[in-house]
Amino acid sequence: MVSVISGKFENKILDFLKSNSDYAFKKKELASILRVKSKHYPQFRNELKSLNKLGSITKVHGGRFIYTSPESYLIGNLSISKSGKGFVDGEEKSAFVGSGQFGGALHGDTVKVKIKYEYEDRINGEVIETLSRSNKIIQGYVQKKYNRFILEPSHKLANRGFVIQDLKGIEPEDFTWVEAEVINWEKPPKEIPVKITKIIGDSQNPKMDLQIITSKYKLDLKFPEEVKTETAIYSSENVINAKSRIDLTKLPTITIDPETAKDHDDAISIRELKNNTEVGIHIADVSEYVIEKSAIDKEAKKRGTSVYFPDYCVSMLPEELSNGLCSLKEKENRFALSLLVELNPKYDIVKFKLVESIINVDKKYSYEQIGKIDEDDQYYKPIEKLQKITNYLRKNRIKSGSLDFNIPEAEIKIGKDGIPEQILQKEILDSHHLIEELMLLANKIIAKNYGQKFKGFPFRNHEKPKEIDVKEIRQTLIQSNTPKDVKQKLIQKNITLNKMFNAIKGLKTEKLFAQLALRAMPKANYYPKNKGHFGLSFNHYCHFTSPIRRYPDLIVHRFLKKMINNKEYKLKDTKNISRECSRLEVNAMNAERDYIKRKQLRFLSNYIGEYFFGVISGLTPKGLFIQLDEILVDGFVSLKSLLDDYYIYEPSKYIFRGRRYKKEYHIGDAVEIKVVNVNIQLGMADFEMVD
Question: How many alpha carbons lie under 13 Å from residue 455 in its C-beta half-sphere?
Fold first, then answer.
C-alpha cells in the first residue's frame, strides 16, 4: 500500500477510519464527523478520492468508505461461479474476488489473495499470486468460430477464452467433447492456447453423459493395475486378527439400505438387558483390509469418496472390497467396529463401548420393506422399538436447534438409450430417519468421547452462517407470498434459522426455502480441530459410519483401532488431508448434481412446447428462475418474454412488479410455464410464463 500523506484531511480521514475499521461511512457522514467546513469540502472530497486510489481506503457498496487493512492475506482455492464471480476459501476465512481481480488464475487454482477490506462479515480481495495450477488438463466441447476452433470449458474457468492450436490436420466436429493441455499461460486478457490430448466423444449423445461427467470432474472409472494386483490377494477365506475380536455373530443383526445397494457400510442390532436396552451400531472394518500406504489406500485417498449416479457408482474402493469382503452381507461373517450403546427406559445414554467385532447379518431390508414390514416378521418388534428410540432422538435433536431441512431429490429411471424414462421425487420414509438418527448418534459419540483424545483427528465441522446471510434468508421469506400469520412469526427479533423453518413447516414453499438456506450457509468440512456442527446443533461431530465410501471415516477408524489396542496412531499433514477430502467431497457432489441435471434436461428436451407447473426459485435483474414440480429442474424466464406489462426488479423486496398493472412475482410463487428451449451443453432450459 502506498502511504504518501500530504493533504489537509488525509491523516484525519485515515486515523478516524482506522479506529472505526468495523464500519463504513458515506462521504458526507465523514465530512460531518470530521467537521469539514463547506468551503473546504471540495478539497476534502479530492483527498478522499486520492486515498481510495492509493488503496489506503476502499469504497464499498452504498458509496461508503472503509479502512484498508495493510498486508493482510489469505491462501485457498479459487472458485468461479457461472456469473464470473470469484470466491476463495481459506482455512479460517473466505473472500469474494471480483471478475477483474483473478490475476490470471483459473477456477480450482490455489491462490494468494490480498484482502482489500472486511465489511459486514464479508471479505473482499484480489488474487496477487497463483501458487499452484489445478487445470493442466482442461475438459470441454469444441466449437468452430470464425475459422478458429474454440474450447468451451466444462466449468467457468476464467473470464477469457481458450483457443485450440496444434491440431495436426484434425478437424473435430462441433460439440465433440475433448481433453486439452494448456500450451502456455498467457496473461489476461489474452486467450489461453491449448492442444487436444484426448477425444472423449459426441457430447450430444445421451450414452456419453457418464464419460463426459467423469472427464469433467476428473473421476477415474478404472483402478490402476497395482490396485488390482493387491485386491486379488484378498479372498473370503482371509481372516486377519480374528482371535482378538469380540464374537457377535449370534447377535441378531440387520441392514437397512436402498433396494439396489451393494456396499453395506452399517448394520444395526437391538437387545433387551435386565433394565435397559442395548442398541448396536456396527460399521464395516475397512481398515483391516485397506492397509495404510498400500496401493489400495493411496488410490482411496486420491478418490476421497464414492460418487453415486442413478445408473452407476464410481467407488472409492475396488468392487471386490466395497461390494465384497468389506460389505456387511447377509448370512456372512464380517469384521466390524461395533458401538454398543446402553439406553435407559427414557432412552437416555447410560454407557457405551466400542469393540472390534465379528458380526453376521441375519437379514437385509430395503427402506421400502421396513415401511411394509409384517407383524409376523421376526424383526417386527425390534424394529418397532428402534423406531420409538430414533423418533425420540430426532425430536430432541430438532428441539435443541438442529435444522430439519427437507430437500427434495429427483429419482431417475434411465433407459437403454441414455434418456430418462421417468423422473419422480424421492420419498423420505420413516426408515430413512431410523438409520439417519442411529448414524448421527454414533458419529456424535465417537467425536465427543474419542476424537478429542487424538492429535490430527478429522472432525466434521459446520460453522455458523454469517448474520448478513441469515438476515437475507429471513427477508426473502418475509417478502415471499407466505400467510400473514407466518410473516408475524418471521418478523420477531433474533429469530433463528430453526424457528424460521418451523414457521413455514407444511407450506408448499418449505422445500424450496430449505434449498435457498442450504446455498446461503457455509459448507460442512473436515478439519483436525473441533469447531462443532451448526446444522445438527452438535458440539462435537465426525464421520465414522461410512468407511467403504468416505476416506475420512477410514482415517477415524485407524485412530480408534490403535486406541482399542492401546497404541497411538499418528497422521502427518492432517490439515492438507482434511482440506483435500473436503474438496473431493464437493467435487463428487457437484458431479452427481451435474449428471442428474444433464439427464433432467434430456428428459425435458422431449417436451418442447409442453406446459408444466413449478415455483419461482430465484430472481435476477434479467429474469426469473423456475423449478418444475416433480422433475425438479430449474429453467429461466427472461424478463424480455414478460409481455403483459413492463416489469421492474426490486432487489430490496425480492420481487418483480409490473409498472402498469402492479402484478408481482415473488420467490416461492406457484406458476405455470411453457418449455421453449433446452440447451444440454449450457445446462439451461428457457421457459415462458403462461397467463
Answer: 6
